[in-house]
Design brief:
about 475 residues, alpha/beta, eight-stranded mixed sheet, seven-stranded mixed sheet, 15 helices, about 40% helix
């Protein structure tokens, strides 16, 4: 990696510096177990930057599904309680600055330029060190953004930060932190090439974030992965709070009646209760800003996490729980962006997240004609997702996202769909890109339709731009 690049001086040069780095979010094969994933590289980068985040209280969140939503909920409640809360999530939907939030506000472009300009000399020094050793390269894209988040939170005097794991846990760049609470939201099959082909192996990677004597909260209920997490927690003397054992929730949904014309947005609520080391606590009628039973489970994990903070002395009122959970939003997680027609963006990209999406659609929109827009990465199990999705839609538009080389072609997806054996088949359509997909969708729908975009975070981002930039959307209700 060359170190003779000019200093960062504006937004374009800042982005170029970052995008020139190795970016495993954009590669087709992520060598998670190779020597390229090395926490000592992240440790060195933070050392050169003066150890940002060293004294910052951190909530560290891993999990196959739900970690982004749970992170948003925890941060939202902490903000409602009056704390200056940093939030680091990935990937971003449209702008890189979305990854770094402080008190609910994303990092500004000018702040991003200043952050990367500060980090650039340290990266160049590490590039030189790598060239002189047997290491293959200096800091990666994700390592740099992780360092930028911690630097941003220090500069903005954050009281606490919530860090979402990027991939796995044990070897993730965020795992250099010293958290006050560790969280593992769920375990299911995803990134199996990197993390293992059994739930136990995947759980072992996620459990790598557990730290000695630091409380662990988990929403994992399946016995096999839960035993792995519990064993690791016991080895490290880390108190474990598990859903179904130490805390519970009741879920309530107000269902849309299917008459789209004057229907209010559907609503989820939970009652929460816990019993930990003889202490009982409950809070009822918490309205959620996110839909579905799976988000209710994520909310329960968030409340349990915040309860641990409250026990440690953080002042979080019941009203902060109410306000924070009701206003928490997570882009592209069953996100309703329009009514008439109802348009939902979702980043579901594996069997489990597709199943959760369909449960919500069938619960809240049971009698509505549906159109699906779908794209997937070549390294995902698209046939398994399509097997669940196709019977639930009247029309399916297969396309590809354009801003990442991992996308499968629409023709590949069409072939996968054609090979599936099912009693009812939707009409399959092929569109070359999101722009063509949206143009096609508009010929298929009426104001009473539901349009769902799913299969990839990258697709959700590109379809959002097409939908919100469409002149025809001025006739609907864009949220």
């Amino acid at each position: 990696m060359r170190d003779d690049r000019p200093p960062i001086h504006d937004h374009a040069s800042a982005l170029k510096f970052l995008f020139d780095r190795i970016d495993y979010e954009r590669t087709r094969s992520v060598p998670y177990h190779s020597r390229r994933f090395k926490l000592d590289r992240m440790v060195r980068l933070l050392e050169l930057l003066g150890h940002p985040g060293q004294d910052l209280p951190i909530v560290h969140i891993a999990g196959t599904k739900g970690k982004g939503s749970t992170a948003q909920m925890v941060a939202s409640v902490l903000n409602a309680a009056g704390f200056r809360t940093g939030l680091y999530t990935s990937p971003h939907l449209e702008h890189l600055e979305e990854r770094f939030r402080l008190a609910g506000q994303q990092c500004s472009p000018d702040q991003l330029v200043q952050l990367l300009a500060t980090i650039q000399p340290a990266v160049q020094q590490m590039d030189r060190e790598a060239a002189e050793s047997d290491d293959r390269h200096g800091p990666t894209y994700f390592e740099i953004t992780t360092a930028a988040s911690l630097l941003h939170f220090r500069r903005q005097k954050a009281d606490i930060a919530v860090l979402e794991v990027g991939l796995g846990g044990r070897l993730d760049s965020t795992n250099v932190c010293s958290p006050v609470v560790s969280v593992i939201t769920s375990i299911s099959f995803d990134h199996m090439k990197q993390l293992g082909n059994s739930l136990a192996k995947i759980a072992g990677e996620k459990a790598g974030i557990i730290k000695p004597a630091i409380p662990v909260v988990t929403g994992v209920t399946a016995l096999e992965p839960l035993e792995v997490i519990a064993r690791r927690a016991e080895q490290l003397g880390a108190p474990l709070l598990a859903l179904g054992r130490d805390f519970e929730f009741e879920y309530f949904a107000r269902v849309d009646d299917g008459s789209q014309a004057d229907a209010a947005l559907p609503v989820s609520r939970i009652n929460y209760s816990e019993c930990v080391t003889g202490n009982s606590w409950q809070i009822n009628d918490l309205r959620l800003g996110m839909l579905g039973r799976h988000q209710a489970a994520n909310a329960a994990v968030a409340v349990a996490t915040l309860s641990q903070l409250r026990r440690a002395g953080w002042e979080i009122s019941d009203e902060s729980f109410q306000r924070g959970l009701s206003t928490a939003r997570c882009p592209a997680r069953i996100e309703v962006i329009s009514q008439r027609p109802t348009i939902i963006l979702d980043a579901a990209h594996n069997e489990a997240s597709v199943a959760a999406l369909l449960k919500v659609l069938n619960e809240y929109y049971p009698a509505v004609p549906r159109v699906l827009v779908f794209a997937s990465s070549v390294d995902k199990d698209a046939p398994a997702m399509l097997k669940q999705l196709l019977p639930q839609f009247d029309h399916v538009v297969l396309t590809r996202y354009m801003n990442n080389p991992r996308a499968a072609s629409p023709q590949q997806l069409e072939a996968m769909g054609g090979e599936l054996q099912m009693a009812t088949r939707p009409k399959l359509h092929v569109a070359t890109d999101p722009r063509a997909a949206w143009a096609l969708v508009q010929t298929l729908v009426t104001p009473n339709h539901l349009v769902c975009v799913a299969g990839s975070f990258f697709l959700a981002a590109e379809m959002r731009r097409q939908i919100q930039g469409s002149p025809t959307m001025t006739e609907g209700v864009v949220l």
